[in-house]
Amino acid sequence: MKIAVSSMxxxxxxxxxxxxxxxxxxxxxxxxxxxxxxFDNEKAVLGDKAKIEGAKFVVSKGANAVITGDCxxxxxxxxxxxxxxxxxxxxxxxxxxxxRILQERQ
Length: 106
What we know:
The protein is of the alpha/beta class.
C-alpha cells in the first residue's frame, strides 16, 4: 500500500502537517518495504486551488491513503472520488502516523 503523508519535513521523523493542502511536503511511503519518496508541495502557494491540486498530485503518485491533520472538503471529495482513504486528526511524526494506520488495518 502507498500512503501519502502531509509533512512539515523531508523524513520519517518529520511532524505531520496540520493542513493537507498547504503542507510543505508530501511523503509517499510504500508500506511493503517502508521505503519512501519526498515531494515538495509546489501547489501549496495556489490558495484555494491548492486543495484540489494537492489531492490530484497524491492520486497521480498512486496513493491508497492519506494521513494528515486536516483536509478541506474539496480535497476530501477529490480523494474520495479516487477511492483514497483519508485519515484526519493525525499528529506526531510521519513514522508514528504510518504505524497507527497500519495497526488499525490489521
